[in-house]
Design a protein that fits this description.
Structural class: alpha+beta
Strand content: 5-15%
Strand order of the largest sheet: 2-1-4-3
Number of helices: 11
Helix content: 40-55%
Keywords: Coiled coil
Length: 451
């Protein structure tokens, strides 16, 4: 007969197999009795009070059903669970079993403060990176501006060399537009660098020579000249008017006598054509513009063949230098910059316009500059705000024209000279100065200057 395992051995094995559990207490008529074995001993499902070091209960003989074994919740705290089903005491009401999970000691959680500290360090690091990135971008923008300026100067010099032995070259509209945009940007940046100083004492008498080109009222001229924000626009308009009058109408890209003769003959034939009979105008316009473009090309080829690009005295630099000196002297009351720096930049601007006028003169299509009225009401059909300036309300806001429109008439094939289109609109700034009537008196030479 096999030996039966001793009860204490069986119960010890049960305890070893089950995980540790919280301490439970049994409440009955005997008082508070420790009852941790209530969950451990699932084999016999009976209360062995003597095994727990508590007084033996001889009355409690009823089996405890399995559904009275309550598992303590996972969270900390104290939970009292009433368990009365299936637990009986002889001669008494059903016993009540309260399962209580003893709370552990309070813990100090520093995770929130640590997360805030880490987040603040990350923010500081990102701010440092952002500052460094902005500095790099500003430096890159400055370097890019210098490279663009050098590229434009090199392209201008290269174009002069390439055109020396070429025949008449008809430029695309996109090429002309880009050349004019580049010149507009050069003039705008120049005026912003040198004509935005505060504390400029303005007197209309000191600006008399400038106003010979602008033809403004003294009130409007002084209002524009005193404003540091509008003064650059006033100088842009002045420079454009001087360039168109001094360069475009004089053909300075040709030797003086040849340029004067060609300009006179072109003006004479153009006026005769305008006064001719209406039915002969279409054919006459085509022949006139073909002659004008061919003659300009022949004169330029002769100039290029006889010009030595390695000799600085053989280039039209003296004209550019003299005109730059005149412009600087007339605008001297409105700037605090050194004369040498202003003149140097003006020479480049004048030469760039001379190169542009060379290309325009060789085109069969007629190209002209239009200022209309420099001070007027804004009209979106023919004007646009200068880049970086606020928008203007049509027919309501006052406008100061700072760059002329580029008008094209006809095609390179010699056709459609009765069709006119604006390759570029006039650029303008919003102003609040008094406008005499609808428009102020425009410069006599600039309402529509044609080639």
């Amino acid at each position: 007969m096999a030996a039966q395992p001793r009860p204490e051995t069986l119960e010890a094995s049960h305890k070893a197999l089950l995980p540790p559990t919280p301490v439970y207490y049994l409440f009955d008529e005997m008082g508070l009795v420790q009852a941790s074995a209530l969950r451990r001993c699932r084999a016999c499902m009976r209360l062995k009070m003597a095994d727990l070091g508590a007084p033996t209960c001889t009355k409690l003989e009823t089996e405890v059903p399995e559904n009275t074994m309550t598992t303590p919740p996972k969270h900390q705290g104290s939970i009292d669970t009433e368990m009365t089903d299936g637990l009986h005491v002889a001669g008494a009401e059903p016993a009540t079993v309260r399962a209580t999970v003893e709370p552990g000691p309070p813990r100090c959680d520093f995770s929130h403060a640590a997360q805030l500290s880490a987040a603040q360090e990350r923010i500081n690091e990102l701010q440092r990176q952002l500052r460094n990135e902005k500095e790099l971008q500003q430096q890159a923008a400055a370097d890019l501006a210098e490279l663009r300026k050098a590229a434009r100067e090199n392209a201008s010099a290269l174009n002069r060399i390439m055109r020396r032995n070429q025949g008449r070259k008809q430029l695309q509209d996109s090429d002309l537009i880009q050349m004019v945009k580049d010149l507009r940007r050069e003039i705008r940046d120049f005026t912003l660098r040198h004509f935005q100083d505060d504390g400029i004492a303005v007197h209309s008498k000191s600006l008399k020579r400038m106003n010979d080109y602008l033809v403004f009222s003294e009130e409007n001229l002084e209002a524009l000249a005193r404003s540091p924000s509008l003064r650059p626009g006033l100088l842009q308009l002045f420079i454009w008017i001087v360039l168109v009058k001094a360069v475009h109408k004089r053909c300075v890209w040709a030797p003086q006598k040849a340029g004067d003769a060609f300009s006179y003959l072109r003006e004479l034939l153009g006026r005769s054509l305008a006064e001719g009979e209406t039915e002969t105008v279409p054919e006459g316009k085509t022949r006139y513009h073909m002659w004008r473009a061919n003659t300009a090309n022949l004169v330029l080829n002769a100039v290029r063949l006889g010009r030595n690009p390695d000799d600085p005295h053989d280039l039209p630099a003296p004209f550019s230098q003299h005109l730059a000196e005149d412009i600087e002297a007339w605008a001297r009351p409105l700037t605090k910059s050194a004369s040498g720096a202003v003149q140097h930049e003006l020479v480049n601007i004048v030469q760039q316009f001379v190169d542009l006028d060379e290309g325009i003169s060789e085109q069969v299509a007629s190209l002209s500059w239009s200022f209309q009225s420099p001070i007027c009401r804004f009209e979106s059909a023919s004007m646009e705000p200068q880049p970086g300036q606020p928008s203007l309300t049509d027919t309501q806001d006052g406008a100061l024209v700072v760059a002329p429109a580029l008008i094209k008439c006809g095609k390179s094939s010699g056709d459609d000279f009765d069709v006119t289109s604006a390759l570029l609109k006039m650029q303008c700034l919003k102003i609040e100065v008094k406008i005499e009537g609808r428009n102020s008196k425009p410069p006599a030479h600039s309402s529509h200057i044609s080639r």
